[in-house]
Design goal:
Layout (H helix, E strand, L loop, with lengths): L4 H13 L28 E5 L5 H7 L1 H11 L3 E5 L3 H9 L5 E3 L2 H10 L4 E7 L5 E2 L1 E6 L14 E4 L5 H13 L9 E4 L3 H10 L4 E5 H10 L7 E6 L3 E2 L2 E4 L5 H12 L4 H4 L6 E3 L7 H9 L12
Parallel strand pairs: 1-2, 1-3, 7-8, 7-9
Antiparallel strand pairs: 3-12, 4-12, 4-13, 5-11, 6-9, 6-10
Length: 306
């Protein structure tokens, strides 16, 4: 069944307004109980999980400054982990194997639906905004210059649980009257940078990814924009949230929050594609839930069992 354009527009408007490698070593397993009654325990090492939206080794290397900053401000050893995919990231967080998790918006919504104890406490700011957009790109040599040219083609996306490289690109395609597996063939590559490279090489006719990551790849010379055509952008998406698991004592929870709100060093913020962090709350992501509903996506079906 097709998606009504009126419903799509309402989802986009609402979104705008509302706007692991080494995981088995992380702290404990099993689903915790009620975080309000569960006894907090001393944390010997703070396990911090980062969203795997780019190559894992690069993410770890780029965030060594953040690791040092948290170790200094919290007086705790910090272990950075990056999962192999979004499903593993979600699994680790919902089983309380990580203390802090940096989610994409959709992966957060999925995790929160499984583990209500996850507390979003900070959201990144970029250029003064707590929202970002996805971009749809086409291969110039293949003659992909508009959404109409995408019809009958292969469209590459990131992880099935990605917001900027799956949910909102597909919502934008739906706004253009294009349905997956009917008007185009979606193929998932895992990471945003893999999407951009596949379209540049001509492996796929078109693809969708975070505009921030696309701009970064262009600036670094990783991809050649002359080989690509920007087809359009999505509506505004609420930014990536940081969450805390249960079992942390209140003093540490407050110290963690303040350390992120006080983080101003551009060298530490740049790998996170942020200018700073401000408080977040769960309702900020209701537009993401609405977008998933409009596209007929079942949250549990977007992740695979590790």
């Amino acid at each position: 069944m097709g998606i009504g354009k009126g419903e799509i527009k309402r989802a986009a408007a609402m979104a705008t307004c509302c706007c692991m490698v080494l995981l088995t070593s992380a702290c404990g397993g099993g689903y915790p109980g009620n975080p309000l009654t569960e006894q907090s325990t001393a944390v010997e090492t703070l396990v911090v999980a980062l969203v795997p939206d780019e190559d894992a080794a690069t993410v770890i290397q780029d965030n060594q400054g953040l690791k040092s900053y948290l170790e200094t401000t919290l007086d705790l050893p910090v272990e950075l982990v990056v999962s192999t995919d979004y499903s593993t990231l979600i699994e680790a967080a919902t089983r309380n194997k990580t203390n802090l998790t940096y989610f994409g918006p959709l992966s957060y919504v999925i995790a929160r639906s499984r583990a209500p104890f996850l507390e979003p406490f900070a959201v990144r700011l970029k250029d003064g905004a707590s929202t970002y957009k996805a971009v749809l790109i086409g291969n110039r040599e293949q003659g992909i210059h508009s959404f109409d040219d995408v019809r009958g083609q292969t469209v590459v996306l990131g992880d099935p649980a990605s917001t900027g490289s799956r949910l909102f690109p597909q919502l934008r395609l739906a706004e253009a009257g294009l349905q997956p597996n009917v008007d185009y063939q979606p193929v998932f590559l895992g990471a945003h940078d893999a999407v951009a490279k596949a379209v540049e090489r001509g492996t796929a006719a078109a693809g969708g990814l975070s505009q921030v990551i696309y701009d970064k790849l262009v600036q670094q010379g990783t991809i050649n924009p002359d080989k690509l055509v920007v087809l359009g952008t999505s509506s505004a998406i609420p930014q990536y949230p940081w969450t805390m698991g249960s079992g942390l004592n209140e003093e540490l929870r407050q110290a963690i929050k303040q350390s992120f709100y006080d983080l101003k060093d551009p060298a530490l913020l740049q790998p996170l594609r942020a200018d700073g962090f401000v408080p977040a709350q769960d309702s900020d992501y209701d537009g993401v839930r609405r977008a998933a509903h409009v596209l007929g996506l079942s949250l549990p079906d977007l992740v695979t069992e590790p």
